[in-house]
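Entry for the shared binder. Reason: the reviewer on the internal report wants the predicted structure included alongside the sequence.
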Amino acid sequence: MVVHQHRRRRRRAGEAVLAVCAAVAVAALSACGAASGTGTDAGGGSGKGSRGGDGRPPGDPAAAVRGAADALTAAGSAKARTAMEMATGGTRVTIRGEGGVDFRKRMGQLLVMLPADVKGQAEHRPITELLVPGALYMKNRGAGVPDDKWVRLDTATLSDGNLVTGGATDPVAAAELLRGAREVTYVGETELAGTKVRHYRGTADIADAARSASPGTKAALEAAAKGFSKDSVPFDAYLDEEGRLRKVRHRFTYVKNGVIDVSSTTLLYGFGTPVTVVLPPSGDIYAGKIAE
């Protein structure tokens, strides 16, 4: 999770992810240097084994991917699993999350599980994250924050737009980022957790996505467009026959004492499942300094 003082503005994306490493790796990573991530499955099937059929995509691949966010809005809500993978010095750690998202209200809740230490012992309680337009709330944040208090972050002030800060890419932002899809190719048809899906591969331009994003996500993506060293984000997206995003893997890259890569995967299922997000009262929000 990002390490900073409450309300402090503008951290570079590299600093944000290095702080994620420091907070979650504990004994597993002795230091955060140049990192590299490979594709990480968030569960529900790998999506491998795509077949191209006659090689002809069903319509315009780029248009299909760009429309995935609107298809999710039409679906209303879904359950979600996330996985964010980082590596350094030959050691790899994965942060996993599970919860639900209301795509119409742009709100969600995730329980983020941090990796165990080198002896297999949990070193941190799971972190509850509330995702709302313009803000990220975290409970059991650690780093000097009382267990019964929440931390609130303004996502428009995060230089990664909360694409990596919370240890899980906000599923709404993950879908909205695809509005900037370009150079998209249709890989083929495959199955994901028993559902027939179409596999697309391409790159998403963060600045383009920000210009087309919904109001609740626009400011955060604008911040990310300024904070990352590269606007171009490679992705693999899997859409069902209704055009809904079932799975997406983004690979974020920036330079901070070397090239650092983060692989973030979001899996969506159980469409229509009710999702309730209750924000904490102002008195439960911690306003003190978070330990560096």
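Summary line for the report: The chain has six helices and eleven strands.
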